[in-house]
Task: inverse folding
């Protein structure tokens, strides 16, 4: 069975303190699609992502991953299919060395040590971090941490990659490398980000969240050209799509 | 607050020492953990007025440190930093226990002073042994050994995460302290009240981070047990290390070696 598609229907979520974070969110994601989820702070992006592999359970509505509903019983299967990269790599890298961290997921899958080893080597090579394997994670640079965090998820061989702010806190060169890396993946990808230029580069489709609702869902180029929609969502055109102020002066 | 930075750099140095490759480093972590435990049990099991009989135990941390490439100065400095705790624990003994138990050079020494010296010596011995263990095994190696020795997973996971996040927490504290200092203009920045609030802040941040870490672990199939991939091999040399040292400790515990040596030197009659 293929786990590459996502179907979210009428998703609503209310935090225990009564704050409504999501309200009637519905969308479908096809095999291999790359989708950007954008919106102002507090628009519900992160809450939405946490539902995609069952870290939060919906108050209303439902989610299917590749036709399998996300329920308590299907969680192990869902979490194998949906790999999640968190915003702060320090939250994700908790093992003593990089290699052990990348091997953490495969070990939990119950794979034999040789297979774990093969997956660690492959995942680290994929993100060009093979040389970091014996280093403790807290001594890595921001870009290295990000690459390793992605490797920890790749080692699980997921069908879908969900990432929260993949470019936050990175210097331009490290950001460029992450973008190149993400572009090279064939996985179905969901990226929540404030980096609209990254969204414009990587995703053919964009979902705009605003106040816990879906404000828009359509081709990235169209959405980023709609200034009214962007302003309502607390956003603005990506820099790459704005007329360059320096050139304009001349 | 620079003491936090100093603390972090000490942990970092311990970590780097643990990455050396010496005969002591190559001994199986389990052998070193068990031996150190036997050492500690023997040292603390002495009578409270015992001082001289404890001296032979110095051998263990000294031999391990010198063979394991751990500088004495480094261990000494850490002992100095943590010693106020032990100094306070026994500080009232000389007041409460004034009975003279021994004579040194014509001066009567009260039981309180003797037991105080005994406490300090035990503190130095056990702490030095634990430090040398960490510096030759690595903290994570110790955790691995504990896991293989079937210590419950809850404890091992706690220790592992504590060690991993002490850096993150320390740096967060430093940033918080820096933010306060930058706006307190050399004054005390509203004093104690601010400190309690900072502590509260730190607790909340830590709880939030713990939740995020737990979510990240759950995403990768965490079920309560951190599986460490490294395989250990407990060979004949490791067995010899454990039994040899343990036998020595039991001997030091059973026989008062300094006294026996003294008798030997001064002639059997003594």
Result:
């Amino acid at each position: 069975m293929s786990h590459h598609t996502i179907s979210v229907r009428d998703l609503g979520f209310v935090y225990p303190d009564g704050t409504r974070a999501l309200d009637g969110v519905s969308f479908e994601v096809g095999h291999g699609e790359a989708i950007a989820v954008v919106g102002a702070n507090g628009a519900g992006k992160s809450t939405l992502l946490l539902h995609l592999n069952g870290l939060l359970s919906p108050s209303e509505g439902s989610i299917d991953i590749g036709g399998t509903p996300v329920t308590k019983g299907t969680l192990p299967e869902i979490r194998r299919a949906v790999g999640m990269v968190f915003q702060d790599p320090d939250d994700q890298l908790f093992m003593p060395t990089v290699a052990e961290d990348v091997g953490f997921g495969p070990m939990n899958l119950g794979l034999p040590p040789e297979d774990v080893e093969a997956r660690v080597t492959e995942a680290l090579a994929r993100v060009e971090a093979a040389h970091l394997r014996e280093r403790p994670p807290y001594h890595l640079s921001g870009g290295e941490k990000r690459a390793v965090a992605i490797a920890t998820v790749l080692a699980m061989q997921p069908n879908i990659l969900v990432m929260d702010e993949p470019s936050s806190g990175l210097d331009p060169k490290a950001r460029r490398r992450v973008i190149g890396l993400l572009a090279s993946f064939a996985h179905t990808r969901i990226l929540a980000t404030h980096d609209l230029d990254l969204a414009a580069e990587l995703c053919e489709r964009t979902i705009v969240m605003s106040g816990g609702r879906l404000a828009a869902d359509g081709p990235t180029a169209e959405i980023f050209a709609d200034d009214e929609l962007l302003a309502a969502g607390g956003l603005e055109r990506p820099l790459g799509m704005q007329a360059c102020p320096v050139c304009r002066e001349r | 607050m620079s003491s936090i930075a100093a603390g972090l750099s000490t942990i970092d140095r311990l970590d780097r020492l643990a990455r050396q490759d010496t005969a002591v480093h190559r001994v199986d972590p389990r052998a070193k953990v068990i031996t150190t435990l036997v050492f500690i049990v023997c040292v603390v099991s002495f009578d409270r007025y015992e001082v001289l009989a404890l001296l032979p135990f110095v051998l263990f941390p000294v031999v391990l440190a010198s063979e394991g490439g751990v500088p004495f100065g480094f261990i000494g400095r850490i002992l100095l930093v943590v010693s106020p705790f032990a100094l306070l624990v026994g500080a009232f003994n000389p007041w409460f226990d004034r009975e003279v138990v021994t004579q040194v050079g014509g001066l009567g020494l009260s039981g309180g002073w003797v037991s105080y010296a005994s406490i300090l010596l035990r503190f130095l011995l056990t702490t030095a042994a634990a430090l040398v263990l960490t510096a030759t095994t690595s903290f994570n190696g110790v955790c691995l050994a504990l896991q293989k020795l079937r210590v419950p997973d809850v404890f091992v996971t706690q220790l592992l995460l504590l060690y991993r996040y002490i850096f993150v927490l320390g740096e967060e504290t430093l940033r918080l302290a820096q933010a306060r200092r930058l706006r307190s203009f050399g004054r005390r920045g509203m004093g104690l009240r601010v400190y309690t609030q900072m502590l509260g802040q730190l607790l909340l941040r830590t709880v939030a981070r713990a939740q995020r870490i737990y979510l990240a672990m759950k995403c990768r199939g965490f079920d309560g047990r951190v599986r460490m991939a490294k395989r250990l091999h407990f060979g004949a040399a490791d067995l010899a290390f454990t039994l040899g040292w343990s036998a020595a400790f039991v001997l030091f515990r059973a026989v008062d070696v300094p006294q026996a040596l003294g008798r030997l030197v001064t002639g059997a009659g003594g």
User: Anything to note?
Assistant: Chain A has a mean pLDDT of 90.
